[in-house]
Design a protein that fits this description.
One of its GO terms (cellular component) is cytosol. The chain starts with 5 loop residues before the first strand and ends with a helix. The protein has 12 helices and 14 strands. It is of the alpha/beta class. Strand 6 and strand 7 form a beta hairpin. The strands form 3 sheets. The chain has a 6-stranded mixed β-sheet. A 5-stranded parallel β-sheet has the order 2-1-12-13-14. Strands 3-4-5 form a 3-stranded antiparallel β-sheet, with helices on one face. The longest helix is centred in the middle third of the chain and has 14 residues.
């Protein structure tokens, strides 16, 4: 596996530990790989500005897969190299479903989150706490009426996101959304749902980035832990799943590394890249 030229990594519960940080050792390993010419690529459900500063500004980070592959960004050239966005009419149908349940509603559009005050000012009602609570406050703009905003700004919608306080309700909503057969539905956190355009996932974004860089997928390693990492793990030549990852993801892994609290990504890079 010494031919790995790109390492894509999920953030929450993969690269980031329980405190949404990475250790000095992991930073050193990422930099060592970058110094060897390996592309270090955050592959996240987050928008670009929600990627932690220490990673977003790292010298070896030139690209990012954002919003589960809906937008692939070239940081050096400050340009978007690939998009796979939702149509406004699709988003309205998705919101029709979410409106029936006790859950938040928001969209990511052109690198910014948007949420109504009825949700943004009551995040604690949906079991949103700690670093995720702070992250949402930093990355969402308040809009009085989300549907009106979408009507006036229909282009560039990357993702619809929803948080739940009841996990049985979350599973019901997942099934109902998937039954519509109009979008890709997955989760990245224990209490959320993330909805993208049909065919939009981290695997699709990663494949387009590899093509852009002139790499084959055999030269790509991907690390993840959750449902929204599935297509990326399948697409990569080397699919690495965290010990804290889901059972389903472990079943398709090429390698199961240590947990996110034990420098699992760094361990895999040391083993297969350095």
């Amino acid at each position: 596996m010494g031919n790995i030229r790109l390492v894509a990594m999920d953030l929450d519960n993969t690269l980031l530990d329980r405190n949404k940080q990475i250790s000095e050792h992991t930073k050193e390993v990422l930099q060592a790989a970058a110094d060897q010419g390996v592309e270090i690529v955050p592959a996240t459900g987050r928008i670009f500005k929600a990627i932690p500063d220490f990673l977003r500004e790292m010298e070896g980070v030139h690209y990012a897969l954002c919003c589960n592959g809906a937008t692939v960004y070239d940081r050096i050239r400050d340009e978007i190299i690939y998009t796979n966005h939702l149509e406004a009419e699709t988003v309205f149908r998705l919101l029709d479903v979410l409106e029936k349940y006790h859950c938040t509603q928001d969209i990511y559009r052109n690198g910014q989150g948007y949420m109504e005050p009825r949700f943004l000012r009551h995040l604690d009602e949906y079991k949103i706490e700690g670093p995720i609570f702070d992250l949402i406050l930093r990355t969402r703009k308040e809009v009085a009426d989300l549907r009106n905003y979408i009507q006036e700004n229909p282009q560039g919608i990357e993702k619809v996101c929803s948080f739940f306080d009841d996990m049985e309700v979350r599973e019901t909503v997942k099934e109902e959304l998937r039954a519509l057969e109009i979008a890709n539905v997955a989760s990245s956190l224990p209490n959320n749902i993330e909805i993208n355009q049909f065919g939009c996932d981290k695997g699709d974004g990663l494949t387009h980035l590899a093509e852009y860089l002139g790499l084959t997928m055999d030269q790509v390693m991907a690390c993840g832990d959750a449902e929204n990492d599935t297509k990326m793990i399948e697409a990569a030549g080397l699919g690495v799943v965290m010990e804290n990852g889901t059972r389903e993801l472990k079943e398709i892994a090429d390698f199961i590394t240590k947990t996110n609290n034990e420098d699992g990504v760094a361990y895999a890079i040391e083993k297969y890249v350095l």
